[in-house]
């Protein structure tokens, strides 16, 4: 059972455009939602994270939008650059289960020059 | 200094062989993981150890056996390798702070079974 569903599976954006990746979750007990970024040939690394007490978190060109009632959250990359080309994973966890992360399926982002 | 290291980086072997992948973390974390990433980039959790004790054992063939000699090391031994075992295997360690887990991944071991 996939508890965190991510879309799209792949995304191609032109340089300077906005990249949007969406995730939906089922378990209302989830209370922590990070995004991980994986460059080719490397392991995933934490990019940005949000807790459900806020609807948006911004770090530089990266923004998480969170909709608790819809059980959805998304990653927006503004002014996308070729260096942003990577695989992005959303994840979710709940403190009461030992906070173990459940990952989405991943989105391969390609930003064309 | 590398936080989570894995050896070897590449592993090419014949079907039926037995191989091991080693993982070490110098972050002082109590929890370590093994993940398998297939060609579609999906990250599938295989095992998790906390302080040398197995806490997660997903549906993985028993040809895969993790071993944690101490909390800084989590090795993965694979018996009778099959073509379908070809993938990238990631080790990770994690810490939990205020209910938020951050996982730190190693660089991966690219396994190709011929």
Describe the structure.
- The complex is a heterodimer of chains A (113) and B (114).
- With 113 residues, chain A is mainly beta.
- Chain A has strands spanning 4-7, 10-14, 19-25, 33-38, 45-50, 56-59, 62-67, 72-77, 86-92, 102-103, 107-112.
- In chain A, strands 2, 4, 5, 9, 10 and 11 form a 6-stranded mixed β-sheet that branches.
- Chain A is globular, with a radius of gyration of 13 Å.
- The model of chain A has no long low-confidence stretch (mean pLDDT 93).
- Chain B is mainly β and 114 residues long.
- The N and C termini of chain B lie far apart (34 Å).
- In chain B, 0% of the residues lie in helices and 61% in strands.
- The A-B interface holds A 9, 31-32, 34, 36, 38, 41-46, 49, 51, 87, 89, 93, 95, 98-101, 103, 105-106, 108 and B 4, 40-43, 45, 48, 55-56, 90, 92, 94, 96, 99-108.
Give the structure's gist in a few sentences.
Chain A is mainly beta and 113 residues long. Chain A is built from no helices and eleven strands. The chains are: A mainly beta (113), B mainly beta (114).
Which key terms come to mind for this protein?
heterodimer, A: mainly beta, 5-stranded antiparallel β-sheet, B: 114 residues, mainly beta, 4-stranded antiparallel β-sheet, 11 strands, 0% helix
Topology diagram in text:
The complex is a heterodimer of chains A (113) and B (114).
Chain A (H helix, E strand, L loop, with lengths): L3 E4 L2 E5 L4 E7 L7 E6 L6 E6 L5 E4 L2 E6 L4 E6 L8 E7 L9 E2 L3 E6 L1
Parallel strand pairs in A: 2-11
Antiparallel strand pairs in A: 1-3, 3-8, 4-5, 4-9, 6-7, 7-8, 9-10, 9-11
Chain B lengths: L3 E4 L2 E4 L5 E7 L5 E7 L5 E8 L2 E5 L6 E7 L2 E6 L8 E11 L2 E6 L3 E5 L1
Parallel strand pairs in B: 2-11
Antiparallel strand pairs in B: 1-3, 3-8, 4-5, 4-9, 5-6, 7-8, 9-10, 9-11
């Amino acid at each position: 059972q996939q508890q965190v569903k991510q879309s799209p599976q792949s995304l191609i954006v032109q340089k300077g455009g906005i990249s949007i990746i969406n995730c939906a979750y089922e378990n209302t007990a989830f209370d922590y939602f990070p995004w991980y970024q994986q460059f080719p040939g490397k392991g995933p690394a934490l990019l940005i994270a949000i807790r459900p007490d806020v609807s948006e978190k911004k770090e530089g060109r990266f923004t998480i939008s969170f909709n608790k009632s819809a059980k959805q959250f998304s990653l927006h990359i503004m002014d996308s650059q070729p260096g942003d080309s990577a695989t992005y994973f959303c994840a979710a966890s709940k403190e009461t289960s030992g906070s173990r992360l459940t990952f989405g399926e991943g989105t391969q982002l390609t930003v064309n020059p | 200094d590398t936080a989570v290291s894995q050896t070897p980086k590449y592993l090419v072997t014949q079907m039926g062989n037995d191989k091991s992948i080693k993982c070490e973390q110098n972050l002082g974390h109590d929890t370590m993981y093994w993940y398998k990433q297939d060609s579609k980039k999906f990250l599938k959790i295989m095992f998790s150890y906390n302080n040398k004790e197995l806490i997660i054992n997903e549906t993985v063939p028993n040809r895969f056996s993790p071993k944690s000699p101490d909390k800084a090391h989590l090795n993965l031994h694979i018996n009778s390798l099959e073509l379908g075992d070809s993938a990238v295997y990631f080790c990770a360690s994690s810490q939990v702070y205020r209910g938020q887990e951050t996982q730190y991944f190693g660089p991966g071991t690219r396994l190709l079974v011929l």
